[in-house]
Design a protein that fits this description.
This protein is α+β, with helices and mostly antiparallel strands and about 325 residues long. It contains twelve helices and 14 strands. It has four domains: about 110 residues, N Utilization Substance Protein A, Chain:P, domain 4; about 60 residues, Nucleic acid-binding proteins (OB fold (Dihydrolipoamide Acetyltransferase, E2P)); about 80 residues, K homology (KH) domain (GMP Synthetase, Chain A, domain 3); about 70 residues, K homology (KH) domain (GMP Synthetase, Chain A, domain 3, 2-Layer Sandwich), CATH 3.30.300.
C-alpha cells in the first residue's frame, strides 16, 4: 500500500476523495488512515475466512478505482462480495484510529507550549484528580499539581502551566498541567509584564509554597529599569493580577543582588535593619537584629525564612540573643 500511497491520494475517485477529506478535517497524516483501513480489512478477513499463519497477507488498493483486494503471498484471494463486508467491519476501527490520531496531534500541539501558561476549563473530577479541557485535549491535573485549599468547579475557566507529557491513572497518554509549580507564577508574571517579554527584566529565582506565599527575585538587564517596580506595576496592578489568579496567595517581589548579604536581607523582607554575617565555607548566613524584626524575618511557622533560604540558596540561621551569646563564646 505504501508504494501506491501517492497514486491513491491523487486518484479521482470516491475513496481517495474521502481519505483526503478525513485527513484535512482531522489534521492527520494520510498514511495513518490508510494503515487503519488495512488493519481493519485484514481483521475482517481473518474473522470470517481461512487464515494461514505462515502466509503473508496484505491489502492492495487500486488507485484508479479505490477497489480493495486481499493478497496472500502476492496472489489475489479476495472473496466474492468481500468489499461490502470489509467496509462494514472496518468502519468502527477506522473511526477509532482516526480519533486516536486526532488526539495524538492535539496532544503534540499542546506539548509545543510546554512551560507556558494556557487557559482551560475544569472538565471532570476523578477521585482527587481533575481533567481540564484545553482545546481538544483532556489534560490531567493530578492532586500534587493542585494548590492546597483551592477549590475547582466543573466548567470553571482557569489558567494552568503545561508541564509535559504524562499518563492518567488509567495509563492513557495525556498532558500534565499544574497550578502549584513555582514556574506557574513565573509565567503569570511573564504574561503580565511586557518588560519581561522584552528581556529587560529577568527572573533570577523563585521560591513558592503554593496557596500561601511566593518570593520571586528579579533583576534588570537595562540601566534605568526598576525590576521590582516594573513587576509590581502602577498602584500594584500587575502583581495584584497575579495574586488574583492565585486566589490571594501572597507574593514578595525581591530585588536580586550578586552581593549575598544584600540579597539575603531583601529576601527576608518585610523584616528591616538586619545584620547578616556569612560563613561562606558552610554557606550559612547568621542573621541578627531587634527581636521584633527577627520575628518578621522568621514569619508565621517559619515560612518567611524558609522561603528566603530557598530563594537565595543559603542556609539562614536567625540568631536570638541566646544563640548570639553562644556563638560569641565559641569564637572567643
Amino acid at each position: 500500500m505504501k508504494a501506491n500511497l501517492k497514486k491513491i491520494l491523487t486518484a479521482r475517485n470516491e475513496f481517495s476523495a474521502a481519505i483526503n477529506q478525513i485527513c484535512a478535517e482531522r489534521d492527520i497524516e494520510p498514511i495513518v488512515v490508510l494503515e487503519s483501513i488495512e488493519e481493519a480489512i485484514l481483521a475482517a478477513y481473518r474473522k470470517d475466512y481461512e487464515w494461514d499463519e505462515e502466509a503473508n497477507y496484505e491489502v492492495d488498493i487500486l488507485p484508479e478505482t479505490g477497489e480493495l483486494r486481499i493478497l496472500k503471498d502476492g496472489k489475489d484471494i479476495t472473496p466474492s462480495g468481500f468489499g461490502r463486508i470489509a467496509a462494514q467491519a472496518a468502519k468502527q476501527v477506522i473511526l477509532q484510529k482516526v480519533r486516536e490520531a486526532e488526539k495524538d496531534v492535539a496532544i503534540a500541539k499542546l506539548l509545543e507550549k510546554q512551560g507556558q501558561v494556557v487557559s482551560g476549563s475544569i472538565f471532570r473530577k476523578e477521585g482527587p484528580n481533575y481533567y481540564v479541557l484545553i482545546g481538544k485535549v483532556e489534560a490531567f491535573l493530578p492532586k500534587k499539581e493542585q494548590v492546597p485549599g483551592e477549590e475547582y468547579q466543573l466548567n470553571q475557566r482557569m489558567r494552568f502551566l503545561v508541564k509535559g507529557e504524562g499518563e492518567t491513572p488509567r495509563k492513557t497518554k495525556t498532558v500534565i498541567v499544574s497550578r502549584s509549580d513555582p514556574e506557574f507564577v513565573a509565567q503569570l508574571f511573564f504574561q503580565e509584564v511586557p518588560e519581561m517579554r522584552a528581556g529587560s527584566v529577568v527572573i533570577k529565582n523563585i521560591a513558592r509554597e503554593s496557596g500561601q506565599r511566593t518570593k520571586i527575585a528579579v533583576t534588570s538587564t537595562r540601566a534605568g529599569v526598576d525590576p521590582v517596580g516594573t513587576c509590581v506595576g502602577q498602584k500594584g496592578v500587575r502583581v495584584q493580577t497575579v495574586i488574583n489568579e492565585l486566589g490571594g496567595e501572597k507574593i514578595d517581589v525581591i530585588q536580586y543582588s550578586d552581593n549575598p548579604v544584600m540579597f539575603i536581607a531583601a529576601a527576608l523582607s518585610p523584616a528591616e535593619g538586619l545584620k547578616i554575617e556569612l560563613d561562606e565555607k558552610k554557606k550559612i548566613a547568621y542573621v541578627y537584629g531587634d527581636p521584633e524584626q527577627l520575628a518578621l524575618a522568621i514569619g508565621k511557622e517559619g515560612q518567611n525564612v524558609r522561603l528566603a533560604s530557598k530563594l537565595t540558596g543559603w542556609e539562614i540561621e536567625i540568631m536570638s540573643e541566646e544563640k548570639e551569646k553562644e556563638l560569641k563564646q565559641k569564637k572567643s
